[in-house]
Amino acid sequence: MNTNYNHSFRLPAEWEPQSGVILIWPHEDTDWHPYLEEITEVYLQLADAITRYEALLITARDSEMVSSLLKERLTEEQIKRVTLFTCDNNDTWARDVAPISLISNKASEGGSQPLHLLDFCFNGWGEKFAAEKDNRINRQLYETGLLQGVLENHKDFVLEGGSIESDGRRTLFTTTSCLMAPHRNQPLTQEEIDKRMRLLFPNVERIVWLDHGQLAGDDTDGHIDTIVRIAPNDTLLYIGCDDEKDEHYEDFQLLEGQLKQLRTLEGRPYRLLRLPMPDAIYDDGERLPATHANFLIINGAVLVPTYNQPEKDKAALNTIQEAFPDRKVIGIDSRTIIRQHGSIHCLTMQLPQNG
């Protein structure tokens, strides 16, 4: 574990300026194999949307094949924004594999400051799935110079990017169900994990632990990015549930109650924007964790999962537009992605601008 915590660095909010986004490309030996063509099309749509606004770093087992696909889909100008790196992978969830980046507090004083790239242990969400190849990706990218900054080894601590949300200032959000789940960081207590994270993210003064809101079919034990997201101006977007017959109803009512009781560090209530609970989607009898909250914020746009549910998709897109009025809100059909129990935010990781 690194112990030289530099208090001039902070964990930014996702809507702050970015230098690029990371994607890990699917292949036939991942769990995407039964619908590889369909998920490849989703990845091409993501690549198209992202490269209209910023750079894209793709790791792929067969980078030549991916390059060929991209050249058929993207313009020459977009292709210039793509960097391909060849390496193997177990799966494709960049949000939980790629480094969590800290930026300098002193960037506004002039001069470029290197990112601090925190490389945590990813163990397949509590040893549910193989992850040894995924766990090596960051080091490989760094050693070839594709990750610009200082790579910090925190492999003694399990932390997934989807399990935390930052306001870019002094508050971090997470869920009790995930960070206290088995096979993560036992025997650490919640108090000890809280303290550890405030050391890792030195700008954070408090961690808000949410105790409710786990989606059926979620392999992650309740990642925050599936239920509650932070937006500018002390805004929280969250999933609500009004259907008393829905299995989520009671838990999400409790989540909403907890959010209404929260206050900012300045003592003000948060601005709450409610996203609809998508109608249940099943695959082979199993309910999938469909959620509009799993959106990706990039420079100038927000990429939002949709589920071919026109009324609810439109309501979610309009609500997210209200939270991000200066960005274009782009819906991307995510019915294939949720077949592997994640969505757009889970597949991606942004790299902030380094000063």
- Number of helix segments? 11
The strand count comes to: 19
SSE series: EEHEHHEHEEHHEEEHHEEEHEEEEEHEHE
Measured by DSSP, the beta-strand proportion falls in 25-35%
| Measured distance between first and last alpha carbons | 26 Å
As laid out across the biggest beta sheet, the strand order is 1-5-6-7
CATH architecture: 5-stranded Propeller
Class based on secondary structure composition and strand pairing = alpha/beta
What name does the CATH topology carry? L-arginine/glycine Amidinotransferase, Chain A
Protein name: Agmatine/peptidylarginine deiminase
GO molecular function: agmatine deiminase activity; protein-arginine deiminase activity
Organism: Prevotella scopos JCM 17725
Keywords: Hydrolase
